[in-house]
C-alpha cells in the first residue's frame, strides 16, 4: 500500500471521529477507540481478529492499521462503534503513536500493550519505549485539552484513579497511566515451559509495572479459553461491557489481574538479596525493578556489546 494512501486514510478517519464526537463534556457517545501496541510479531492482530470474530489468518502489520467493530445495544438503538488501531514494527515506528490519539479522541481512548513472553530479553525495552512515547504524547494532548475544554481534562484526571480504591494502601506510591491501560503477555504456551525462577522474575516484574501504572495484567496464548478471557477484557474497553471478576496471581498459571486488585505487599520486593539493592543506585522503584530485571535478562543490544567487548579483550590478550 502506498504511504500517501495510508496517511490519507488515517487522516480522514481521525477527522471523521473528531466530528462525530463533537464537543461533549464526557457524555457517553457510543464510540470508543482501542490502540494495540507492543512486541513485533507478538500476536496483536490475532487478538484483534478474535475480538471481532473474524476467522482469517493474521497478516503482518507494516505501519499503522485501522479496523472497527460494531455491537448492537438493542432494537432501534444505534450500534456502539469501536475503533481498533494497531501499531506495527514493535518500537521502530514510535512517531505514528500521535496519529490516532488526538484531543477529540482521547477521552474514549484505551491502550493495550502486548508483550511477547517468549522473548524476555526484549521485554523491558519494548514496554519502556512504547509506554514512554505514548505517555509523553498523551500528556501533551491533555495540556492542549486544558486550554480548550478544562472540564473534560479534569474528568480525565479523575478517571485515571477510578480503578484504584480510595483506601488502597499503595495509593500514594503509584502513578496511574493517563488513559486506561491493559498489559497482555502473549505466547504463554512457550513461557510456561521456562525455568520456574525465570517465570517468577518476569511475573513479578510485570505485576509491578502494571500495578504502578494502574493497569490490568493478563497472559494469553492460542488457548481458546485464554483468548475468550482476553476478548472479554477488550470488549470492556471497546463497548463498556462489565469487567471480569476473576483473578489469578499464581505464577504457575496464566496471570489475570484487573487494575486496582494487586498490591506491592503481594508482589514483594525485586528478586535480589536485600543487601545488594543499594548497589544498583536506583533513584526510583521503577528504576530498581528495571536494573534488576536487565541484570537477569540483558537487552539484546547490551548482550551483543558485552560479547563483542569480551572478544576484543581476548584478542588483545592473544596479541600481547
- Please indicate the percent range of residues in DSSP E strands (runs of 2 or more): 5-15%
Total of helices = 10
Order of helices and strands: HEHEEEHHEHHEHEHHH
Largest sheet: 7 strands, mixed
- Strand tally: 7
Low-confidence region ranges: 17-28, 308-313
**Radius of gyration over C-alpha positions, nearest whole angstrom:** 21 Å
Average per-residue pLDDT, rounded, comes to 84
Basic shape: globular
> Can you give the helix content as a percent range?
40-55%
Kindly report how far apart the N and C termini lie: 56 Å
The strands making up the biggest β-sheet line up spatially as 2-3-1-4-5-6-7
The secondary-structure class comes to alpha/beta
How would you characterize the overall build of this protein?
- By secondary structure, the chain is an alpha/beta fold.
- It has 10 helices and 7 strands.
- Helix 2 crosses helix 7 (224-239), helix 3 (120-148) runs antiparallel to helix 4 and helix 6 (196-212) runs antiparallel to helix 9.
Amino acid at each position: 500500500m502506498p504511504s500517501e494512501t495510508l496517511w490519507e486514510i488515517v487522516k480522514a478517519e481521525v477527522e471523521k471521529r473528531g466530528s462525530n464526537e463533537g464537543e461533549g463534556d464526557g457524555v457517553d457517545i457510543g464510540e470508543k477507540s482501542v490502540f494495540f501496541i507492543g512486541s513485533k510479531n507478538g500476536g496483536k492482530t490475532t487478538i484483534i481478529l478474535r475480538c471481532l470474530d473474524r476467522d482469517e489468518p493474521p497478516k503482518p502489520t507494516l505501519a499503522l492499521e485501522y479496523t472497527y467493530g460494531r455491537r448492537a445495544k438493542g432494537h432501534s438503538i444505534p450500534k456502539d462503534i469501536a475503533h481498533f488501531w494497531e501499531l506495527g514494527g514493535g518500537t521502530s515506528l514510535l512517531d505514528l503513536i500521535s496519529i490516532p490519539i488526538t484531543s477529540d479522541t482521547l477521552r474514549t481512548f484505551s491502550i493495550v500493550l502486548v508483550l511477547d513472553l517468549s522473548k524476555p530479553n526484549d521485554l523491558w525495552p519494548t514496554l519502556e519505549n512504547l509506554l514512554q512515547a505514548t505517555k509523553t504524547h498523551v500528556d501533551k494532548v491533555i495540556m492542549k485539552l486544558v486550554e480548550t475544554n478544562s472540564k473534560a481534562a479534569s474528568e480525565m484526571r479523575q478517571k485515571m484513579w477510578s480503578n484504584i480504591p480510595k483506601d488502597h494502601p499503595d495509593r500514594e506510591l503509584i502513578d496511574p497511566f493517563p488513559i486506561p491501560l491493559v498489559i497482555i503477555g502473549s505466547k504463554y504456551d512457550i513461557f510456561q515451559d521456562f525455568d520456574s525462577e525465570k517465570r517468577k522474575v518476569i511475573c513479578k516484574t510485570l505485576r509491578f509495572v502494571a500495578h504502578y501504572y494502574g493497569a490490568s495484567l493478563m497472559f494469553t496464548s492460542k488457548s481458546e479459553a485464554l483468548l475468550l478471557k482476553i476478548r472479554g477484557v477488550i470488549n470492556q474497553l471497546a463497548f463498556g461491557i462489565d469487567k471480569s471478576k476473576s483473578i489469578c496471581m499464581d505464577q504457575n498459571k496464566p496471570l489475570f489481574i484487573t487494575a486496582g486488585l494487586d498490591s506491592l505487599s503481594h508482589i514483594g520486593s525485586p528478586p535480589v538479596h536485600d543487601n545488594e539493592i543499594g548497589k544498583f543506585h536506583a533513584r526510583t522503584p521503577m528504576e530498581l525493578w528495571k536494573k534488576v530485571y536487565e541484570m537477569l535478562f540483558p537487552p539484546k543490544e547490551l548482550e551483543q556489546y558485552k560479547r563483542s567487548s569480551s572478544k576484543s579483550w581476548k584478542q588483545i590478550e592473544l596479541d600481547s
